[in-house]
Amino acid sequence: MKLLHYTYRKLSLWLLGLMAVWGVLFYYTIIYEVMDETDDTLENYAQIIINNALYDPATLQTEGDNLMSFYYFRPISVKEGEHYRDMFYDSFVYVESENEDEPVRVYRTAFRMPDGQFYELELMISTLERDDMVNAMLWYLLALFALFLCCTTIGTRLILQKIFKPMNRLMDWLQRLQPGGEVPPLENETGIREFRLLGNAAFDMASRSHKAYEEQKQFIENASHELQTPLAIARGKLELLAESEGMNEEQLKELDAIYSTLGRAVKLNKALLLLSRIENGQYAETEDVSVDDILDELLPDLMDIYEHKQIVLERVKGESPFIVRCNASLAHILVSNLVKNALLHNVDGGRLVVETTPLSLVIKNTGTVPLNADTLFRRFAHSVDRKKESNGLGLAISQAIASNSSLRLTYRWEEGLHVFSLVK
């Protein structure tokens, strides 16, 4: 999820919750104020009626009855009067002229006449207007809440988009960076100090990384070439020494062993250089490559080379060829390494199964014991038989090529067979 969307969502949820709580508190505060005003009106009206009753006792024999208010007098005992507590509550009263029950607010209080008799006054006032006002206020509050929420969320999103523009430009710039490629210029002027520092730090880091990459690449190439020259000279001198007169058979055997060792050093040097170039992304050119075509080209020659092992080849093709997006040279090296590995570490008279489908390449070869899948693809990870022809880099190179081409190379042991799978 983008940082802008994440921040916007969190702010929106916070604003929604905050405004909802504010709306509820505001609504109940207004209800409380309206009720308080209604109760004050009832108290004032009751005081007027009580004063009239004290001035004219005949008022006690009357009842107020109109559309907006009602009141009744009821004599009570001295004990009730002395311990009487005023009360307010909501109720309903039947209005004959309207032929329906109307909501009212009721106030009950007690007072004492000059003759010592206590009376209870029950005063009711219609709350129709109050309820209409509350309903109207509720709808207006909801409309205001929705309008305020929309304006706030839209405004917050626009503000956040403007704030995060430098971050978006920086992210686009980072996505344009390519391993080994030139560092593109970063044009990201902003007044926000944090984004400015982040952009400067990213540009400096990318520049230093590119410089280190170029220096490393140059060092590897120079070291490889510098090693190739003395190795080639040493092998040449060994050949001349072997052709000279006076060399006995024992000395020639020693020279042959030294010559073979130098040959493996040359291969090792080339393999390390290739692995470093692959990991440094120096093979950027890619195309659609048919693995089936590479196999058709390689298998006859490799089977001739390892003919002495009398390995039985089983070639299984799918309905359509296995096409991978990869550098053509690297694809050839990848397939060649896997097939050579299966032939080199096969047993005499064993099986070699090469199966392709539109989505995978599977190579199986006869084995004696399973291999350690955790270390198999590491550099200089030799098999149990440690063949002299193997320098321990073939599978490491294959894994590096597969990862560089977004392919998955795996190993498993299956019923006496080593199984290597290359899957899209």
Your description of this structure?
Helix content is 54%, strand content 19%. The protein has 3 domains: 37-152, no CATH class; 194-279; 287-423, Heat Shock Protein 90, CATH 3.30.565. Helix 1 packs antiparallel against helix 3, helix 4 packs parallel to helix 5 and helix 5 (193-243) runs antiparallel to helix 6 (249-279). With 424 residues, it is an alpha+beta fold. Strand 3 (87-95) and strand 4 (100-112) form a beta hairpin. The strands form 3 sheets. Strands 1-2-5-4-3 form a 5-stranded antiparallel β-sheet. It is rod-shaped. The model has no long low-confidence stretch (mean pLDDT 81).
Characteristics of this structure?
single chain; 424 residues; alpha+beta; Heat Shock Protein 90; 3 domains; five-stranded antiparallel beta sheet; five-stranded mixed beta sheet; 54% helix; 19% strand
Strand content: 15-25%
Oligomer: single chain
Mean pLDDT value? 81
Q: What Rg do the Cα atoms give? A: 47 Å
Question: What's the structural blueprint in terms of helices and strands?
Answer:
Elements: H1 3-55, E1 64-65, E2 69-76, H2 78-82, E3 87-95, E4 100-112, E5 118-126, H3 128-163, H4 165-176, H5 193-243, H6 249-279, E6 287-290, H7 291-305, E7 312-316, E8 323-326, H8 328-344, E9 351-357, E10 360-366, H9 394-404, E11 408-414, E12 417-423
Parallel strand pairs: 7-9
Antiparallel strand pairs: 1-2, 2-5, 3-4, 4-5, 6-8, 9-10, 10-12, 11-12
Helix pairs in contact: 1-3, 4-5, 5-6, 6-9, 7-8, 8-9
